[in-house]
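note to self: the first set is below, dont mix up w the second
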Amino acid sequence: MEVLPEGTPVSLSDVAYTLQVGREAMPERLAVVARDVTEAIDALTRFAQGQPAPGLFTGKVDAALPLAGLLSEGRAGTAFLQVAMEERQLSTLAQLWSMGVELPWRTLHGAERPRKVSLPTYPFARVRHWFPESRPVTQEAASLLTPRVEQALRDSTVRELPPPASREDYERFNSLMLLGFFQRMGVLLRSGERYTVDGLRTKLRVAPGYTRLFSALLNILARAGYVQLAGADVTTLPALDAAAPHLERHSLQARGERLVAQAPMTAPHVAIMWACSERYGEVLRGEIPATDLLFPQSSMRLMGPMYKGNPVADYFNALVADSLRQYVAERLAQLPDGGKIRILEVGAGTGGTTDLALKALSQYADRIVYTYTDVSRSFVQYGRENFRYGFMEYSVLDIEKDVVPQGYSAGAYDVVLAANVLHATEELRQTLRNVKTLLRPGGWLLLNEVTTVHDFSTVAFGLLPGWWRFKDDLRLQDAPLLSSDQWRSVLGAEGFPKVVVLGHPDQHRSDLGQNIIIGERDRRSLATAARTLAVSPAVVTNGHARVGQGTAVSTPRGRRPDLESVIASCVEAVVANGAVQLDPSKPFQDFGVDSIFAVSIIERINAALGIALRSTDLFNYASVTKLAEHIRATFPAADPGARPAPAPEPVSPATPIVVQAKPEPAPAGDDGLLGLLDRIESGELNLDAVERFVGGAS
């Protein structure tokens, strides 16, 4: 870093090429993928400080030799390296090299190779340095969400907004339009009609996928006073008769025009309701997809104005931009010279929030890295084509899944931004845990979220499957949304103890129903000077494996354990982490299983079931559930549920059985390796995850 300060007139590619072909590679390896000198310095600075950084890979050749050979030898290995070279998969190549794979660097550069340049030799010192053994020390990062910063954020909410529509007029229009939808389907025509909920749904031939929406629509009509819901019974009320004159098309049209004149920002809502008016029944019956209605001819003609040029959307996007700018200004004061702030946007989509955020951050272009992500590759490509700032990166991210196997470093980001994204996930608690993994201690989760359910949203967005994806119990009625108080509660429970909620200072603007929510990740982190792994051998006494602090995993006499319980007991006995109940759906690596553990676990399972699994099976079927399915398919007689449980052989407590880890040769042939490489290429696995299983633990 001292030899190549920022601004030095030397080509980074020349430096990289010189280090690749002009230096002897050592067993302890460090590889950096960087676009410029500044980025390289930032990654090296973070490494020196013991912090993770995107594009930074470390490895020890002796420990990784089994995996290095597995990935580089034979026909499949050669093909894998060739593809990685041709497609310039630099992160993959950096990971391979750090594990000991010798790479043909000259092939990577092709005919026009960089120059070799003069660089300093290795500054070896004749002094040995050892990390002292120490217990983990709790450190706490400084909070940036101070009272002064919070007040500055609240000051930014004072902005002019167009006058709102009357909430009563707005909801009255929506409920009348919805009642018209039902009447065009031939029901709810006059007071005194009686149905059961199931009977009415059957009469209207509502498709199974719209059952939850149908119940929500009835709740809207009940709140409007048109029907009465009593358990499973539906009865139409006199208010329905009184509404008849207002259901005439000319009357509804005039009401919609008055609403738009009163509050122009409601124009997109009115247009969407009119689009729904003629074909809503067809969608409910499953005759046409909802997207045909909301996105006619695959266009954004109807939905686009909801987000672009909408004063409310613009207001909250501006608050996001101001919050980012405030964070960056505060955080830069804590960073060393050349240090960069890393911001990741989840579910960026078409960049409705991104645009203002990038403009606000452009003044800090040399000090930030902004990662534009989405679960859809097409949206990531859209971002690459439409937002071309030099400080941007683009990648696919499914925030509902563990982020580390997707190639993201834990604790690597200062801010995670999500605009109306996180509520659309199945299990919000797990989603927040994944977000927390991305953030450094004290980092910010910056949310732009709708926090109030409007009838319009239920009627229109409820047609889309994503509205009903949620499976947890955290949401508002008939919606995937959370109130601001609910967000405070769940964020606090998931490791974001300090939460600030921003909204329009005029408390009467309940029409907005939206908030900016900032959660600061807990600032405590465990740091230890010694990076050692103390693994105690698993000890079996009296036929039971001891787990953690003496917790026994056993099956009561006379009961046959199921296959999943046998597997879980073997894992718990070896890992010895005190986790008596493993989540059968989670990857083994989440519980600290590495290659040494894998050998011991498979030995225990084989002994318990009388089968012949390989330790690589623990990688190929990387959870209790998946491994159980594999065993049932391959060794059906081994399922304890399919045969009497054998009596355990007594083991003398005076002579404990110690399970020793033994290296296992790589499987013969290329088929297994090709499958492994396919999973790496598809993004299902990354090399860090593979290394933890078959690369050897240090």
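second set (the one i keep forgetting abt)
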Amino acid sequence: MSSISDHNPIHAMKVPIIDLSHLSRQDFYEKSLVIKEIHEACQNSGVFHVINHGIPKSVIDEALEVNQKFFDLPGIMKEEILELGSRDPFSPVKLARFQHSALGSDLLQRDVLRLQAYPFEDFVDLWPKHPADYREKMGRYTAEIKKLAIQVFVAIMESLNLDATYLKENFEKGMQLVATNSYPSKSISDIKIGTPPHTDFGIITILVQTAPGLQVMDSLDGTWKDAPKLEGSLQVFVGDLLQVLSNGMYKSVMHQVIVPSTNKTRMSIASFHSFEFDERVEPAKKLVDEEGVKSMGSSTDYNMLVPIIDLSLLQKDHQTRSLVINQIRESCRTAGIFAVINHGIPETIAEEALTVNKNFFNLPLKIKEEFFSPDMYKPVKYGTNQGGAHGILWEYLKLYSHPFEKLVDLWPKSPPDYREIMGNCTMEMRKLSIQICGAMMESLDLEATYLKAEIEKGVQMVAINSYSPISGSNMKIIGASQHSDFSVITLLLQSSLGLQVMDKNDKKWKSVPVIKGALLVLVGDLWEVLSNGEYKAVLHRAIRTSGNETRLSIASFQSLEMDEILEPAMKLVNEDHPEQYRGCCLRDYLKHRASGESKPFVETVKIINSATIQ
């Protein structure tokens, strides 16, 4: 039989990161997205990080610090708790040193202080008296964790398509057991530091850890993988009782702790949440039918739940950045579109850009017609699309915007602040595009700087579209017809609903909502070529819906220079993945557009070979 050391993981577990701040907002879509993310995390991995969870960092730090001080106390000051715990396995306070038999001849050691924490008033007088502020600081921490656990439980119920109040009262009255684990800094002879493989018997567990050591069993390949510590986050684990309640839809996660020999003690605080001690848990009736588990159904009428990625996390530690890069990878592969928040562009710049373009389109037609041209290469171009009896379907203004200094004098002079406001907007969008391209390169296992110089020198074209209101009950008319963008990536800002994308899974058109403060990132044709088909350009369109509101969108298309040939990255071409696309450039695309050819341009550069046919 192999020893525990033989089971050290090679890779880090790609643990989902869920931003809980969206649960408290009024936006139905944002909440629906978080609920969907929780569903997928519980179903696929059984563990997820939560950020923006509302618990102050100081409360968490103080709890870890005061527990470290407790374990550092002389033994005589801890004997009272040791004695109490040794006599009664159900003791509300128990201190013990565990040495577990693991695989083979290995032993795993840890020191544990277990506390019943709810109701707080019933148990606090039994908690350690030393350090002097132990009860105060741990009381504050456990109360905050209890509130968070209730919030997460409600969201998990919704993720199962159960009512938000389902068993909420039972959970609120339920047990909270807190286990503080101290893993000594060094192993002694054949004793390793850690906890053997196990699942948690409870609904959920919320964990904070000070250092690496936690490992999770990957349900896909059965291997142990590191579950990295993410600064500022807490980890949520699916427990055995949630597996029962969900009728097996969510599986409790197998995990262990193997602490590498270091000069620093590892601390963790695990808060286990269940129902009351004698309350039986059964599968929710709504999740049981003659065939077993019912299907989940849709959590939103929009249906296109676009991933939301917090770009500020790219600036955190290496492990956190890696998790975000993986989010980008999965978003590009599965959807071809994602939203970015905390992207660094002030909201005022986006709002001013929308307003100044609205003012431009409200100008007399005579002023706007100055920019009318059939020339596709014109650096500033105004136009309209007609809809027969419906009149003008939409107006557009296209601006080449890089290098800004050479082009700005060609832009509209009216409104008077147009050039200044749109200059600020386009430069910020260009900077952000370059940053996102670097992260997307990393998501393909390329260097972040791959093609960076070429992209920085490349063409930036900005298209502003104005869709006027139309009359009619619930009327929908196609605005911009279905297409993909010939760009590396496209950044999109929209004022209201209208964008639809083709869902790659069921090939249906689905609306993309407006997410306050976010920008949308769309994978373009050039990225499909660069990635050798690993990422596909997203097919999308715009619709006009009856209403009183004019819809505006600002799209920034980032490409290479006009005649710069882009080919698949050689690192992504091999015997198993032969080259799928021939090289192409922006001028090729513009010629294709001018020809009136209906076939999508990216289809014209695909290479047909035996691997493609298979």
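remember for set 2: Residues 77 and 485 are 69 Å apart (CA to CA).
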